[in-house]
Specification:
The chain is built from 18 helices and 15 strands. It has about 525 residues and is of the alpha/beta class. The chain has two domains: about 230 residues, BPG-independent phosphoglycerate mutase, domain B (2,3-Bisphosphoglycerate-independent phosphoglycerate mutase, substrate-binding domain), CATH 3.40.1450; about 270 residues, Alkaline Phosphatase, subunit A, CATH 3.40.720. The strands form two sheets. It has an eight-stranded mixed sheet, with helices on both faces.
Length: about 525
């Protein structure tokens, strides 16, 4: 076939747009042949590569494909499937053939606190729970001794921009009730990132207002309980309303993030003037405030001007997606009613941290993300991220020599099956890049396998909403040049990459790839 399926899928997407659908929550679109039969279905004996590189959002779909005892919803299990995660999504998948196995980060902040024999609490709502546990702890799924993890459910059943407060006040209430139990607490407020990814201007302004109110309630309660509070962010997002073209801005930014030390007079006198730095400097700073020594692995430097006269308890508050933007009408944080935030910046030592690109282990110039941000915050050093590892593998040619991927191609050839690539339609996202499935298509072609199907995952966050048809046109041209790979259909990220146990969504995506259920097009 000369047509690789990109042009056909683009037409189906445009029709879905006219019906009110969006890239993020695009319902399954299934390519059919001239007789109406679904094309490129995943069957027993096939090879599948999940071409995303993150973790918490890939777990549910991976479970559905690989766990024979999965029972959250009914699904058609496929025996004899060789399913390959591109990176390690969870330690429970350790027996799966992982293409780029990770190395865990050791000797981070949480581990140092635990070794000191101190108790600690990590709390966030479910949208960001993995970030204050798995990512903050350097890829360790199990809490360290003395660590308690508290997950507050995010709202369900209603678009987030309709409830910009999310579960922030439940997070505050639960942490306040536990302040007397822990010398170290880390808390994430999810609103800046979650609402920042929407197109709703008023919701973004409201989110900043809610964060301000919740911040005041938590910080003041912690101060009264004897804590020094460190306020920072993992990356920027909320602080930008529009793209240079005037469209709603829904992606992460490369802006610096704040670093504020809220303490008593003696602590503030020792802290000031705070140094500028990067996220990897936060962990050694917190350890200094607690009277603990940084681990040998921590390459970050304390941001304090001097040792505080006394050490004590610390609460780290991470404002997810809260970057430092322009002080004008393009910044929802500036437009919002944030008297407490304004007070912190006037009254307490503060500085700026780099939270993107090479300063957090990403490619140069790339916006930060929650995974990299929390991992660097917890590690106390720059942690090379999977995007850098994979980009290096592509540029130096080792990607094409990856033995797990090559063995998967050989498996499909041996069984007479097909190779399927769950392909994320974006150029630069914390979850992946379309470059990965394209490289695998090249690899399969050189190994003599032409039965390769791409199951497209539409983005809608790191890409501008409504950009899928243009990206599909580019993908069509690239596949034609490679000469290997056909597009079998597409479905939104909100279905495939769920992380809140919305298994009805994940099942719709799964059934489209396995059973051909969805809106047909040809």
């Amino acid at each position: 076939m000369n047509e690789r399926g990109g042009t056909l899928l683009a037409g189906a997407v445009e029709q879905a747009y006219r019906q009110g659908q969006t890239d993020y929550f695009m319902e399954p679109l299934v390519r059919v042949d001239s007789e109406g039969a679904p094309m490129g279905l995943i069957r027993p004996g096939d090879g599948v590569v999940f071409c995303c590189r993150r973790g918490e959002r890939e777990i549910e779909m991976t479970d559905m494909f690989t766990d024979p005892d999965f029972d959250a919803v009914e699904r058609t299990f496929l025996p004899g499937l060789r399913f390959v995660p591109l990176t390690m999504y969870h330690e429970k998948f350790k027996d799966l053939p992982t293409a780029f196995a990770p190395s865990q980060v050791m000797d981070g902040l949480a581990e140092a606190v635990s070794r000191a024999g101190l108790a600690q609490l990590h709390c966030a709502e479910s949208e960001k729970y993995a970030h204050v546990t798995f990512f903050f702890n350097g890829g360790h799924h199990q809490p360290f001794p003395g660590e308690d993890d508290l997950r507050i459910p995010s709202p369900k059943g209603i678009p987030f921009d309709q409830i910009p407060q999310l579960s922030i006040f439940e997070v505050v209430r639960e942490v306040r009730s536990r302040l007397d139990q822990y010398p170290f607490i880390v808390v994430n407020f999810a609103n800046g990132d979650v609402i920042g990814h929407t197109t709703n201007r008023e919701a973004k302004i409201a989110a900043a207002t809610h964060v301000d109110k919740a911040m005041e309630e938590l910080v003041e309660a912690a101060r009264q309980a004897g804590f020094t509070v460190v306020v920072t962010a993992d990356h920027g997002n909320l602080e930008v309303l529009y793209t240079p073209k005037g469209q709603p801005h829904v992606a992460h930014t490369t802006n610096k993030v704040p670093f504020v030390v809220v303490g008593d007079e003696e602590v503030c006198r020792a802290a000031a003037p705070l140094k500028d730095g990067r996220l990897g400097d936060v962990a050694p700073t917190i350890l200094q405030l607690m009277g603990l020594s940084p681990t040998q692995a921590m390459e970050g430097q304390s941001l304090l001007a001097a040792d505080p006269p006394r050490q004590g308890r610390v609460l780290l508050l991470i404002l997810d997606g809260w970057g430092m933007g322009a002080e004008d009408e393009t910044n929802p944080i500036h437009l919002a009613d944030t008297p407490y935030w304004d007070r912190l910046l006037r009254a307490y030592p503060h500085s700026l941290l780099d939270a993107s690109g090479e300063d957090v282990g990403l490619e140069a110039g790339k916006p930060g993300n929650s995974e990299a941000g929390h991992m660097n915050l917890g590690a106390g050093r720059v942690v090379p991220q999977d995007d850098q590892r994979l980009s290096n593998a592509i540029s130096n040619g080792t990607f094409a020599d990856n033995q797990v991927l090559r063995q998967t191609v050989d498996y499909a050839k041996k069984t007479g099956g097909d190779l399927h690539l769950l392909a994320y339609l974006t150029k630069k996202s914390s979850h992946g890049s379309i470059d990965y499935p394209l490289e695998i298509c090249r690899m399969a072609g050189t190994q003599g396998l032409d039965r390769v199907w791409l199951h497209v995952i539409f983005d809608g966050r790191s890409t501008e909403p409504g950009s899928a048809p243009a990206l599909l046109a580019e993908l069509e041209e690239q596949l034609r040049k490679i000469g290997t790979g056909q597009i079998a259909g597409g479905v939104g990220r909100g279905l495939v990459l769920d992380r809140d146990k919305n298994y009805d969504r994940v099942k719709r995506a799964y059934d489209s790839m396995v059973l051909g259920q969805g809106t047909p097009y040809r």
